[in-house]
Input
Amino acid sequence: MPRVSQDQLDARRHEILAAARGCFARFGYEGATVRRLEDATGLSRGAIFHHFRDKDSLFLAVAEDDAAAMAQTVAENGLVQVMRDLLDRAGSDTAGWLGSQLEVSRRLRTDPAFAKRWAERSAAIAEATRERLSRQRDAGVLRDDVPLEVLTQFLELAYDGMVLHLATGRPPGELSRVLDLVEDAVRKP
Output
């Protein structure tokens, strides 16, 4: 039997994550049965669960993948950029990502074990946001009359509202201008 390289394993894992993201988004966690995951990935359950212990681990990996990408963007360009990127992709490849975000939110409310596992992932995004805001404040770009924690919460609320707006199928409309307003609200006058 030929040996499979780490690059091939990583590529297969990435393919599974991408297909599972769409399946979870479309059917929710409970509705994304193993059979549906097989159909979405084009792989057998053995092939899927060779890479992931179980469906819960697969879902958490999808959510972690999304959170890692988001934390990186926040660290480099800020949370408003995450929202701008989301808006730029609205209607195209965001359905899976938005669905995963909503499923994470639902599971945070209904699954204490998941909430406990997820806490460190969400903390990384919040910390990246705080660090970015702190660097901007030190550079004299950010307003200094509001505590950083309040600005962080303000941006997180704007992000949550945008995710909800887009996930419910409402048109983007003037959200680009809304993001300009959000950005202006945290900048020094």
Summary: The mean pLDDT is 86. The CA atoms of residues 174 and 180 lie 10 Å apart.
